[in-house]
């Protein structure tokens, strides 16, 4: 009976303070390991390709793509920290309190940055669709780069403040050896719920509802205008077709992100793997970049000047 109890503990030598392992069959543990490892590898690889593509090719240095780059960076790190989830397959953490705090802190920063980037993407599409004549002056490359930097810096500062006690005393809130958790007070939890979820989701939903209404109304106006002036030849349109396609693509990204964020952490991790697949499906430039990278044409002189669009 004593042997059985020891086998159920994360640290058998710490009989009184050790956490218990999760009860999983060998098949379930192996299957979970394979699935998480595959998602982690796929997520890091695909998002690294997005990062290389947007960073390397000058034609892709646009405000919208800078936002996609920020999202790809956060998704890339999500893929990396998934390796820590693999460590926790049996419910035991063997890397110590300091690494536990670093892991949890990094995960929270990445999540905050991802949510902030989604808000910026929504603002970008809102201006592009609802105020297209002033888009190029309002949304410049430099302004978007500054906004992205501010988003990441604020995420780091915000989570540092929120997890202050955990950073100062790693393992302070861990009830038993072998567990990896960070926590705070009730008020901080409510504030985090609002600033990291309710507030951003509300902004994203409102902006995209406005984008949808404007896009539909402009599409109807364009159709009626085409019918009335067909004999006059070409028609001037307020919103470019490419902008509408970008709004649709990023809208899909945002919706899937919100769905995954609203459910469980596994779906949130899987969402980071889905984003590059969405880009590959909707964006021809991403498929062209993949071909250039895979065939090593990227190493050729002046490859950054290649015609991607």
TrEMBL record:
Stated family: Belongs to the G-protein coupled receptor 1 family.
Keyword Membrane recorded: yes
Pfam families: 7tm_1
Cellular component terms per the entry's GO annotation: plasma membrane
G-protein coupled receptors family 1 profile domain segment(s): 46-279
Topology of this chain in the membrane: Multi-pass membrane protein
Leader sequence residues: none
Keyword presence, Membrane: yes
Recorded superkingdom: Eukaryota
Transmembrane segments: 30-54, 66-96, 102-123, 144-163, 193-216, 246-270
Recorded GO MF terms: trace-amine receptor activity
Matching SUPFAM superfamilies: Family A G protein-coupled receptor-like (SSF81321)
Protein name (Swiss-Prot/TrEMBL): G-protein coupled receptors family 1 profile domain-containing protein
Compartments reported by the entry: Cell membrane
Species this protein is from: Anabas testudineus (Climbing perch)
InterPro entries: GPCR_Rhodpsn, GPCR_Rhodpsn_7TM, TAAR
Keywords: Cell membrane, G-protein coupled receptor, Membrane, Receptor, Transducer, Transmembrane, Transmembrane helix
């Amino acid at each position: 009976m004593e042997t059985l109890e020891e086998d159920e503990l994360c640290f058998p030598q710490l009989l009184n303070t050790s956490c218990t392992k999760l009860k999983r069959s060998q098949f379930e543990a192996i299957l979970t390991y394979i699935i998480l490892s595959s998602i982690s590898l796929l997520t890091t690889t695909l998002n690294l390709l997005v990062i290389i593509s947007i960073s390397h090719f000058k034609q892709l240095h646009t405000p919208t793509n800078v936002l996609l780059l920020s999202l790809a960076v956060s998704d890339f790190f999500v893929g990396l920290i998934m390796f820590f989830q693999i460590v926790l397959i049996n419910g035991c953490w063997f890397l110590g309190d300091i690494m536990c705090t670093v892991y949890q802190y990094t995960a929270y920063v990445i999540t905050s940055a991802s949510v902030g980037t989604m808000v910026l993407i929504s603002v970008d599409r809102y201006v592009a669709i609802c105020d297209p004549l002033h888009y190029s002056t309002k949304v410049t490359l430099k302004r978007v780069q500054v906004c992205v930097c501010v988003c990441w810096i604020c995420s780091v500062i915000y989570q540092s403040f929120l997890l202050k006690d955990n950073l100062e005393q790693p393992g302070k809130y861990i009830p038993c050896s072998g567990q990896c958790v960070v926590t705070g007070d009730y008020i901080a939890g409510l504030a985090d719920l609002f600033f990291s979820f309710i507030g951003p989701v509300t902004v994203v939903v409102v902006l995209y509802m406005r984008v949808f209404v404007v896009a539909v109304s402009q599409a109807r106006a364009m159709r009626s205008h085409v019918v009335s002036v067909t004999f006059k030849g070409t028609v001037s349109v307020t919103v470019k077709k490419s902008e509408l396609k970008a709004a649709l693509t990023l809208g899909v990204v945002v919706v899937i992100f919100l769905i995954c964020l609203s459910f469980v952490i596994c779906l949130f991790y899987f969402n980071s793997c889905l984003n590059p697949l969405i880009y590959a499906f909707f964006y021809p430039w991403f498929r062209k970049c993949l071909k250039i990278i895979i065939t090593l044409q990227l190493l050729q002189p002046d490859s950054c000047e290649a015609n991607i669009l």
